[in-house]
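Entry 14. Ran structure prediction on the chain below.
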Amino acid sequence: MNDTQLLRYSRHILLDELGVEGQGTLLSSRALIVGAGGLGSPVALYLGSAGVGRITVVDDDRVDATNLQRQIAHTLARVGQYKAHSVQQAVAAINPDVEVLAVTTRADAAVLDEQVQQADVVLDCTDNFATRQLINQACVKHRKPLVSGAAIRFDGQVTVYDPRQSSSPCYACVFPPTETVQEAQCATMGVFAPLVGIVGTVQAAEALKLLCGIGQALTGRLLMLDARNMDWHHVRVARHPSCPVCGGAPA
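Output, structure tokens:
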């Protein structure tokens, strides 16, 4: 690190769990964010400000005025732009040393297979069940840790699926792809603006911990928030013995 970086990241370097070595790890790390909306905004801003060296953002949607109530990476001036490009500009304004790659094609199986294998950590910031399943399949295939977040109305949840660990479930263990799921859309159900910030910030924290090997990740624990009462609780989740994706057996 140069003198400018030592100053920029000094508050991280002061942490015994991080230090110069940990910050160096972040600077050489690669994160993949799928979804540049309510969850992807705080995730990208915190990973960028923390100095994750390369961040790839995948989202084929464009910024709309209705997004600005909660999607803090975007501005009124960028309405109509691709969200991935808007996030790219937002991170560059905070930390121009971070390389942000914007992918504005749909996150289909081929795109995810290519992008996941290049990442050190993957963050699912989408609101689409089918896409979540595709992200999970790619992470299991390439043995990449996945930080999954969700938020609707006043309810949020975060967990980590880590196929590098023999005891970790995958997303399909907890939410089987064969289930019929009624999609919950912000446009019809609403979402409390700070909720996506809270959930996204926790996702960013889990990703940074995973990259640096700090503390205990949320692997095997589904953390849930009722923001009406600011009530946090978690449930244990385990591998499903007949999971069609990870097979319920060590990868």
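The radius of gyration is 17 Å. Will compare against last week's run tomorrow.
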